[in-house]
Amino acid sequence: MSRPLVVDVHTHVYPPSYMAMLRARKTVPYIHDPATGEPRLIILSSDDDPSIPIDERGRPVDTSYSDINVKISFMQEHGIDSSVISLANPWLDFLEPAEAQQWAQRINNDLEETCAQNNKSTEGLPLKGRSTLFAFAALPLSAPSPDIIVNEIKRLKTLPHIRGVIMGTSGLGNGLDDEKLGPVWAALDEMQLLLFLHPHYGLPNEAFGGSGVTNRYGHVLPLALGFPLETTIAVTRMLLSRVFDKFPTLQILLAHSGGTLPFLAGRIESCIMHERKFVDNGGDVPGPKRSIWEVLKTNIFLDAVVYGTAGLKAAAAAGEGTDRLMFGTDHPFFPPLNEGEKEWLSVTTNYKAIDKTFEGQQEAVAAILGGNAARVLKLE
Q1: Where do the Amidohydrolase-related domain residues begin and end (predicted)?
Q2: Which of 126, 142, 364, 374 has its CA 20 to 30 A from that of 171?
């Protein structure tokens, strides 16, 4: 099927330097690299359970995670013209403070070099059909001073292929309503860098009945419910702490269509209006001045990684149109179910959902698939 420009804004890569760093570690997170079989990333403490054979812990990380040629082949197989690559969790949040700046610079330079080398032979040509790469950079969030994070944000503007940054919902470790994040929000706003906000570890196992339940159902509950709810809670905490009042032009792209935020926005707004602790209702807490609906229309973009028409309709309704929705694949996660298959069900499901939701609206489909990302991220 012939498609307009397609830009993938949600696609992950572990650069070789990052893989080497994880392989050298002995504590979570680390990569177990057996003599035979696939390496495995042990990312959660619960995955490092001694009762689980080490070759079954965590998740396999094959070449699709680190080999950029595999990424390009995937793009060509699925009609993707440009990808904005980024680290997946755990990013750099686990690093010792003294190491954070050095590793952030190294990883971000690797991302820039990867994009530059890939795009070198076709620079100046239209994006359509070129298999180009851009990147969201990682931040040294564990650094001992916010100034180090701010300086890296400012340095990123000197890297031509960096189009924003990726951050987990834990921020500096205490959530996104942490006042210490103020300088980071200010720097992102000043540098006009988009923040790609991605869930980090999901909700605690207790939310799903304890570790025994999640073991019975694999990763379905944490991924299907934990990640989206984590995003919803994180952004709501930002709203309640008046981040969007203080930084009204801060721009954020939310993974997985914003979790449940589009669906629950009205309920969140109603609860804010009726909260007696807020000054406007006679309390002593300065509540948010801007409504969640205004923030959704002016500060927030959503990726379209939601796999269904109901979710896409809610996402479009939240932003009052399709100009704030962007296509994504979440590659290399959710690979084909059967060995030898080249077509990824996780990607084709996204395509089909967009086509069905906006059937007969060619301009809307073109905007979601690539036009919005090209415009917002200045990819041309």
Answers
A1: 7-379
A2: 374
CB 108, CB 162: distance < 8 Å: yes
Instruction: Write down the mean pLDDT value for the chain.
Output: 94
Residue-level pLDDT at 1? 60
Phi, psi of 194 (to 5 degrees): -70, 135
Q: Distance (Å, rounded) from C-alpha 372 to C-alpha 321? A: 12
- Domain containing 256 equals 7-14+68-376
In a domain, 23, yes or no: no
State pTM to two decimals. 0.96
Instruction: Order the strands of the 82-86 sheet from edge to edge.
Output: 7-12, 82-86, 132-137, 162-168, 194-198, 252-254, 300-303, 325-326
Q: Is 56 among the domain residues?
A: no
Is 2 contained in some domain? Answer: no
* DSSP secondary structure letter of residue 138: P
**What pLDDT, in 10s, does the model give residues 140-168?**
999 999 999 999 999 999 999 999 999 99
Rg, the chain, Cα only = 20
Q: What is the CATH number of the domain that holds 136?
A: 3.20.20.140
